[in-house]
Specification:
Residues 7-74 form the Tc1-like transposase DDE domain. The protein is mainly α. 53% of the residues lie in helices and 11% in strands. The chain has a two-stranded parallel ribbon with strand order 1-2. The radius of gyration is 19 Å and the shape is elongated.
Length: 92
């Protein structure tokens, strides 16, 4: 069974809704044909940011801040990294 068969019943429901606009960076998977086709069924429009435009992508600002904060820490293990990441992220 393909994803198209699974999405077909939802198509009628989503076409009745206001179109959702999703802004994406240029990560290769964001240009996948499967994603584009699924978005048509789900009444979603995709807008891709310009290449190399980190100032337009808010998550890049989050990562920049997180890297700055965590780069001063000695990362003992994955658990330590996750805990510190969560602490800094919730303070932002």
């Amino acid at each position: 069974m393909t994803y198209k068969v699974l999405l077909k019943p939802l198509e009628i429901l989503f076409k009745q809704e206001i179109e959702t606009v999703v802004v994406l960076d240029n990560y290769p998977v964001h240009h996948a044909i499967t994603l584009k086709e699924a978005c048509k069924y789900l009444n979603m429009a995709l807008i891709h940011l310009f290449k190399y435009s980190p100032k337009l992508n808010p998550i890049e600002q989050v990562w920049r801040t997180m890297k700055k904060e965590l780069s001063t820490e000695f990362i003992v293990n994955e658990e330590f990294l996750i805990e510190n990441f969560e602490d800094y992220f919730t303070k932002m």
